[in-house]
Amino acid sequence: AFDKTVAKDNSLAVGFFQRGFVHLQLEMYEEALSDYHLAFTHLRKNPFIDYKQLGLRYVLNAWEVLYSTAAAQCRLGQWQEAKATLEKAVVWRPGGRTAVLDLALEQVQKHLFLEPMQVPPGEFFRPRKKEVEELDSKDFLGKPKVISSIIPNDEYIGFEPLRPQKQGFYEPSADALQ
């Protein structure tokens, strides 16, 4: 499902973030690391992306993506890279609250695996009701109408400019005009 999602929107950072988490759970560490790198790239140097506008009650933070990247690097035995990634995450953490990252740095120095961050279970994209109501089909053309000709003996079916022209054929009778 995440493959289909990121195929439809290849800039969806949270899609890559969630797919990275799934890859970690499936022990596909290289793919997870790649997805986390893509998620961070698609943040476009923003500290976070708020997905509430799209119907997902979740804010994806850059430091969370970097933390999960470090978790994937730990699984691959890339301890120095994981340490560097966590130090980079400290810079992206807002407000200087780095207790979680400091603890993670200690774990990496002791060569202990980190548990990756994830979107809280049970959170799904739910578009607003107003947007879903507009998805109903609308009839812009209206109902078809049958229009009859006032010209006697007119058996032509088609558009008026394509009608073969005959001299004297188009004068309506006096009865038709009334």
TrEMBL record:
Any GO MF annotation of the entry: superoxide-generating NADPH oxidase activator activity
GO biological process per UniProt: superoxide anion generation
Protein name stated in the entry: NOXA1 oxidase
